[in-house]
């Protein structure tokens, strides 16, 4: 399924490209549905607004289905006529896996958001348009094979996210979070653009494969410019991955954003940053691996250490925010995700498969944890960790699901998939000769056990009302008062589905971890 695109390339010359519509369909369909939703919003009254959410969910589900016919082999489009291997869009195995992750993450976010949009806490038309637009950019990014498309995809994914974070009108915390997110992302984009311009000046091309070839033969007078371009490009993407010291926006942004959007940023937003980092390091800058390899190894160590140390402060008995704990936890998890990318500089780039395998596990269980947090927030808007006390007594299945998600993040049985994912990341560091980084990771995994297990234990403690009732029965009759416990409110169906889906997938992956871990042992890029 192709169409011809002809543009003028100069006097007497033309550039003819073939457009593979099937290859670009998974990234294009969410954008098309976003426009449809925005237009439909103009003609629907308040009672008809909920249909926009279901249209969005159907569009994201259809985008996921369009990945199936692309499994048969690599497909490229928007290729140069004089260099057929230099393409701007490639749907290879790496692309399809990341597109599945981001589209599935967006679909679960949409499910969690249906109830909020229906109840009026979020403006329906604007919300669904922004979410679909961001998902379109996130799906485009892993297929991008030139620096210009990469930056455009990054911004298409990021710009709508600013508005999504601050979409709760009149909420000061939400507005502050959006402002911090906006300023940090704009800074990251400016730094990335400066780096890309330096790389282009040194190489004369934007296509990743051509950049890699020409960086190996950069003239001596341009070597400093090329090195500066590589460094600045990596710094820009480090902002997007929330790597230390570029992580300062994460806690306040997650706490201030609507909970489904916080989950979206922790999974899809992080996937976007790591995907861009992988593409520029492994494909475009392999000749400078002696620069970015050690730098990413140090960033990985700092990120996991500071993230876990900050998460330790969110102790349950301090009544801190559960979302803030998840935010700091996500910073720590970002450190683990950086390890295989750093290892790719020392061993072969096959180590990238470990990052992909870990990202898939993390996406499932972290979105599941945010789904439970969204449910608890319906009755406890502050969403403190103490609000989860006695959750097992009120909602046994929900508590068991959250406990399983936390054990997966901690890497403890029965969360086998979390344990195995950490093992493959650890092994990538050892195989690359980064023994010191493997030791730092092992220490951090042990440290993280404390706050994950503390939160898990809170779920199974007796509810405060039950303890107060027990104390009242032993007090004198004249002073004994018992407050009846209200029955739990009904769980909205979309939130129930999101928790159930993530829970079932996490259990299945723990029973058959090879479904994800096989990516750690295979090459995701053509050699």
Structural class: mainly alpha
Calculate the terminal CA-CA distance, rounded to whole Å. 27 Å
**Rg from Cα:** 24 Å
Total DSSP E strands: 4
In which order are the strands of the major sheet placed? 1-2
Helix content: 55-70%
Order of helices and strands: EEHHEEHHHHHHHHHHHHHHHHHH
**Count the helices. How many?**
20
Query: How is the biggest beta sheet arranged?
Result: 2 strands, antiparallel
What portion of residues belong to β-strands? Answer: 5-15%
Mean pLDDT: 84
As residue ranges, the low-confidence spans are 1-14, 468-486
Any idea what the shape is? Answer: globular
Subcellular location: Cell membrane; Endomembrane system; Membrane
Main location: membrane
Family: Belongs to the complex I subunit 2 family.
Organism: Streptomyces bambusae
Write a brief caption for the model.
The chain has 527 residues and is mostly helical. Helix content is 68%, strand content 6%.
Describe this structure in words.
The chain is mostly helical. It has a domain at 287-466 and 492-527. 68% of the residues lie in helices and 6% in strands. The protein has 20 helices and 4 strands. The chain has helices spanning 21-41, 50-65, 93-118, 124-140, 147-165, 172-203, 208-215, 223-241, 250-256, 259-284, 289-312, 322-343, 352-376, 391-394, 396-410, 416-431, 435-459, 464-474, 493-511, 514-517, and strands at 2-10, 13-20, 75-80, 83-91. The protein has a two-stranded antiparallel ribbon with strand order 1-2. A two-stranded antiparallel ribbon has the order 3-4. A hairpin with a 2-residue loop joins strand 1 (2-10) and strand 2 (13-20). It is globular. It starts with a strand and ends in a 10-residue tail after the last helix. Its EC number is 7.1.1.-. It is found in: Cell membrane; Endomembrane system; Membrane.
């Amino acid at each position: 399924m192709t169409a011809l695109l002809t543009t003028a390339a100069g006097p007497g010359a033309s550039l003819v490209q073939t457009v593979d519509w099937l290859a670009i369909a998974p990234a294009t369909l969410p954008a098309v549905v976003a426009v449809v939703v925005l237009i439909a919003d103009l003609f629907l009254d308040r009672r008809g607004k909920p249909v926009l959410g279901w249209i969005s969910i159907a569009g994201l589900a259809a985008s996921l289905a369009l990945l199936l016919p692309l499994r048969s082999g690599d497909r490229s489009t928007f290729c140069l006529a004089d260099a057929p291997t230099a393409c701007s869009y490639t749907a290879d195995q790496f692309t399809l896996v990341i597109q599945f992750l981001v589209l599935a993450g967006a679909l679960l976010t949409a499910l969690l958001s249906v109830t909020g949009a229906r109840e009026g806490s979020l403006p329906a038309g604007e919300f669904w348009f922004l979410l679909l637009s961001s998902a379109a950019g996130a799906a485009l990014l892993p297929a991008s094979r030139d620096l210009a498309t990469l930056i455009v995809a990054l911004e298409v994914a990021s710009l709508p996210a600013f508005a999504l974070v601050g979409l709760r009108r009149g909420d000061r915390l939400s507005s502050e979070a959006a402002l911090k997110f906006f300023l940090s992302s704009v800074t990251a984009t400016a730094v990335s653009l400066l780096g890309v311009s330096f790389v282009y000046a040194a190489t004369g091309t934007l296509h990743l494969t051509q950049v890699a070839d020409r960086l190996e033969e950069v003239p001596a007078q341009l070597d400093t410019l090329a090195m500066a371009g590589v460094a600045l490009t990596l710094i820009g993407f480090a902002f997007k991955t929330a790597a230390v010291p570029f992580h300062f926006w994460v806690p306040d942004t997650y706490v201030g954003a609507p909970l489904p959007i916080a989950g979206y940023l922790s999974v899809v937003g992080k996937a976007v940053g790591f995907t861009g980092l992988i593409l520029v390091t492994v494909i475009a800058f392999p000749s400078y691996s002696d620069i970015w390899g050690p730098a990413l190894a140090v960033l990985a160590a700092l990120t996991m250490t500071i993230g876990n140390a900050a998460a330790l402060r969110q102790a349950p008995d301090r009544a801190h925010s559960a979302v803030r704990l998840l935010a700091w936890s996500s910073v720590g998890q970002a450190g683990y995700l950086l390890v295989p990318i750093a290892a790719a500089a020392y061993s072969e780039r096959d180590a990238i498969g470990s990052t992909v395998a870990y990202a898939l596990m993390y996406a499932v269980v972290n979105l599941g944890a945010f789904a439970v947090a969204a449910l608890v927030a319906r009755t406890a808007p502050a969403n403190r960790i103490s609000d989860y006390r006695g959750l097992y007594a009120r909602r046994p299945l929900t508590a068991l699901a959250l406990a399983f998600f936390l054990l997966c993040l901690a890497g403890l049985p029965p969360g086998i998939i979390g344990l195995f994912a950490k093992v493959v990341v650890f092994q990538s560091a050892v195989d690359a000769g980064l023994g010191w980084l493997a030791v730092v990771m092992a220490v951090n995994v042990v440290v993280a056990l404390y706050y994950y297990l503390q939160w898990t234990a809170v779920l199974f403690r007796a509810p405060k009302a039950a303890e107060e009732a027990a104390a009242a029965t032993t007090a004198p009759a004249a002073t004994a008062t018992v407050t009846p416990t209200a029955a739990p409110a009904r769980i909205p169906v979309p939130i129930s589905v999101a928790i159930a889906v993530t829970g079932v997938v996490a259990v299945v992956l723990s029973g058959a971890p090879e479904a994800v871990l096989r990516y750690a042992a295979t090459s995701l890029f053509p050699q």
